[in-house]
Amino acid sequence: MNRIDKLNEFLKVTPKDNFLRHALALEYIKIGEDLKARVLFEEILSDSPDYVGTYYHLAKLLEKLEHTDVAIQWYEKGMVAAKQAKDNHAYNELQAAYEDLVY
Q1: 31-75: per-residue pLDDT in tens?
Q2: What share of residues in the chain are helix, strand, coil (percent, to 5)?
Q3: For 89-102, what is each residue's pLDDT tens digit?
Q4: Nearest in space to 48 (alpha carbons), one of 8, 5, 88, 77
Q5: CATH code of the domain in which 67 resides
Q6: Which domain holds residue 95?
Q7: Distance separating alpha carbons of residues 94 and 75, to the nearest angstrom
Q8: Predicted TM-score (pTM) of this structure
């Protein structure tokens, strides 16, 4: 059983587990299933806008897919969420990626 299969098995038991969904999205990116990854990232942030780590990965994926305007929006939302969570490390990573894209 590969990692994707294992993660899907775990998700059958706890379908809203953000850690598992995030890990599955990253696995999808590894095999080029970018749209599946995007859907998972967006579902996570829809359900749990405070799951700060996902903003960066979603925005980076959107950059890769050449959806620059949408990536910028997610970086901005992520910076707000990171600030609210008092997660300075995540905020700084999001801000640096945002600035690299915008400037």
Answers
A1: 999 999 999 999 999 999 999 999 999 999 999 999 999 999 999
A2: 80, 0, 20
A3: 999 999 999 999 99
A4: 77
A5: 1.25.40.10
A6: 3-102
A7: 6
A8: 0.95
